Amino acid sequence: MTDIAPLASAARAVFGDPGVHAVVRRGRTVHAVSLGQWVEGEEVPELLCRTGVAGWSPTVLEPTRSEVTCARCLRKLGGPSTSRQLPLFGDNPNYG
Q: Quick check: helix, strand or coil at residue 30?
């Protein structure tokens, strides 16, 4: 059996400073990070929005100091969403 404590500790150290957020595998969406239970009682950084990550490992999260852009994370943080959802009906008077 492998001791995962060093891996968990290293992941916590990377995301331990305030203002450090995460992208998944060099993605474009920036997520807020919180600590969550992993295996064997270890806590590791996880996405605040709880979006699943296929093949999850703490090593797929890459640190960034960019602003959070994930709409779900922003809602959980109580901030404005940056979602660019188009309105179903615009200001056009010909629509309902």
A: coil
Identify the CA nearest to 73 among candidates 40, 48, 45. Answer: 48
Cβ–Cβ < 8 Å for 75, 81:
yes
CA-closest candidate to residue 69, choices 23, 19, 18: 23
- Full-model pTM: 0.74
* Both structure tokens of 15: 């995301």
Cα separation, 41 vs 33, whole angstroms: 18
Q: In whole angstroms, what is the distance from residue 34 CA to residue 23 CA?
A: 13
52-68 pLDDT, tens digit each: 776 667 778 999 999 99
Burial of 11 (0-12, 13-18, 19+ CB in 10 A): buried
Evaluated on CA atoms 47, 35, 67, 27, the torsion sign reads negative
Q: Give the C-alpha separation, 92 to 54, whole Å.
A: 42
